[in-house]
Amino acid sequence: MKDKKWGVGVLCTLAILVFLGGCAKQKKKPAPTENPNKSVEYEKGADFTGVVKGVDTINTRITFYNTVLDAEEVYPYSGGTEIFTKNDRSLSMEEVAPGEVFEVYIRQNGGKVAKMKRSGDIIEQENRKIFVDADKNRITVDDVNYAYNDNLVALSEGKAVDPMEITSSDEVTFRGVKGQAYSLIVTKGHGYIQPTNYNDFIGGVLTLHGEAILPVSKDMLLVVPEGTQQLTMDNGDLTGTATLEVRRNQVTKVNMAQYQNQVPDTARASFEIDPPGAELYVNGRLTDYSKKVSMKYGNHSIRVVLEGYNTYAGIATVKDSSPVFRINLQKETASVNSDSSSVQKSDSSSSGSTSAPEAKKTDADHTITVSAPEGAAVYVDGTYKGVAPCSFAKVIGSVTVTLTKKGSETKSYNIEISDDNLDVNWSFPDLLEGSGTSGNNSGSSGADSSGGVG
Hints:
Helices cover 6% and strands 48% of the residues. It is built from 1 helix and 39 strands.
């Protein structure tokens, strides 16, 4: 009997201990606190970093490139949307510009933009010239490379553009982070100059605003910075300078015949050489005598060469503005007749004439083919190459390809061509309708832009 009482007592004691242990454990578990410190305000972080693509003030909507999701998103905003600079200065939505980068906070109920603050981690560089390598999806700014993707915000006058359309002469505002580009806003773009009636300048040199120097060739269409530009053509004794106002993405035609002047103390000499095909050297420089040759008054060394004939060397004396020199090569001797000026046979010769600018390297064994847009005139660095589809000798290096078509816009693309012993094939987007031609200060002869003008 005592054993039973002892067993019951042990069981009761154990039950009490288990109960008390459970209570002890419950007492050690702390109760959750809704606000650990009421004196501290807890604010959730930004929902994403967004690049502004556009603001619709009528429908109160703002379009972002969401850099976190790599996607375009549209959100409503209201008068209660808070907007701040990096330094917490308050802004209005009218002060928000496309291309700017903000930390964006979205309201949980309704999905409206609650707050926007300009990102403090953004690299921002104004009035920069850039190079776009579309093959590598890379943008170079001040010798620093940045990757970009299809959602890059690239705008010119508020309109989206292909980054390749930004030429080396354009100026942009760049925004991005280390290694990644977010936006390109063209602050100074480019237009076009199309010279007309300039046959007498062909073979000479064109200077643009005292910087760009190009050989004057047929059917030129020049890509130039927008704004006031001064174009000068020089060919021996002829010179012509026109001052033009170039508008962004517009073609300005200029009639160079209106500006053509003859340099004082120079002559335009004619050479009649028999037999045909002989080479003429004036002051040591190979000279095209199929048209009049610019020569200063005074003495000039002359040399005429033709295989199978005796080489002629002499001194040509220019006395008036339009001399004619006749040179007949013979098997043994050469007889020379001159009107208004004289040529004296001599063994001496001299050199000293400014040569045309050096051309880009050409790969004659390979071609560049432009297949689209069909019917568009194709220019490379301002020189006419034909109407697409067309092919021409491959050039090496950085070039500007311009496409133009009557009744359509004109577009330019910056392209880097590798010396890789391969043919190149290009197919560009269609040109949108819209002539994009201006004639301010041009004196245009009205030649259309689909082909060449002389």
